[in-house]
Amino acid sequence: MTSLRNDASARLEAVSRRDLVIDLARVACILLVVVIHLLMIGVGYSPDGELVVSRPLEAQPWFAAATWIGQIMPLFFAAGGFTALTAWRSLLRKGGDRADFVRGRVLRLASPALPLFVFFAVVLGGATIAGIDPALLDTVATGTGSPLWFLAAFLLAQCAVPWMVALHDRAPRATLAALAGAAVAVDAIRIATGIEPIGLLNLAFVWLFVQQLGFWYADGWFRTRHPLTLVALVVAAYALIWVVVAAGWYSPDMLTNLNPPTVPLMLLGVAQISLLTLLHRPLAALMRTRPAQAVVYLVGSRAMTVYLWHLPVIIIVEGVSLLIPGAAPEPGSAVWWATRPIALVVVLGVVFAIAPLLLRFEQVPTTIPDGRRRPGSAAIAIAAVLAFVPPFLVLEFFLDLPIAVTGVVLLSLSLWLLRARRLAPA
């Protein structure tokens, strides 16, 4: 026990020597996602005893306006760009190459996703065999699987990092302008033709643009701007969002603009990274405190587990509450809102309770041990595609039993292709 405490203390000391503002932003984004999903799922009993299922948060008149602040996925992708750029440059200094980087990124996303797809395959398969109402099963599966879209978008953006960094180093302004122009063109064609699948191209252009902002942040561009310049960027970004929304081209609900990703998300990225820079000094001071470092380390080291598993846990907690007298008030009622902090503590408690069981999937080693060799570039490329397909299918068609089973098979193959091979005997 003493050695564990010493190890944790050593890790915290190492963390304290880093600039953790980006890590704080990533953790805050993940926790906000949990809070939003908890408030969007309402399951309880009305005063007359009828079961009520609703989405209380979306029913609020201020909900759409709140998404202009609460839609924080652009900030998460920008933070991911910062982390990826520094990791890529560190890997280069150690003699690594593009294949090493892509392999590491795919491992870190595919590995924690596999047990979740196994869970869904088992649960949905069992429920189907048990004869559960298919409509109810479809509703639950669609809701609990919705966060998986992120894996497709983030994997695509992260695997492109070595090439996007090269473009950034060669022509940063032209690269950013080209991505923005491509995203605008895709949206314009989609809006003009009404063909929604065209918008899927922005799964690349929008998120690569936002990730590129993280490169600029890492290189110090935002930090060297005058505060008034950053304020002007925030105002300009939100003003442009207002213009395109007022023109009727986009929904005022920024969550709706998430699938397919649209130009307003790029503008939100500019505003959010500028705001983060404006707040960097007080946030850095906060992150010099031990309690803040401990929270960031605790959540950050289990970030994928919290993100991937919080919705299934929310559904389970809501289901259990129905069996406890008085624990499931009518969704949207004053009592329901008052009990949300308690529900949040319970959900996070359950997630962190199961986290040790999933830790080996989240903290998968990416280094090649002695006596083994890295798989070839072709195998790594195939593994990346295999890992991309299951979450992309969820993004397009929503989760169901066939997609869950497909995810188990393809992610297992992906991880098998990425494993280190034994060296051939001399």
TrEMBL record:
Keywords: Acyltransferase, Membrane, Transferase, Transmembrane, Transmembrane helix
Domain of life: Bacteria
Residue spans crossing the bilayer: 20-45, 65-88, 109-132, 148-167, 174-192, 198-218, 230-250, 262-280, 307-328, 334-358, 378-395, 401-418
All copies of domain Acyltransferase, residue ranges: 22-354
Molecular functions (GO terms): acyltransferase activity
One Pfam short name: Acyl_transf_3
Protein name, as recorded: Acyltransferase family protein
Species annotation: Agromyces allii
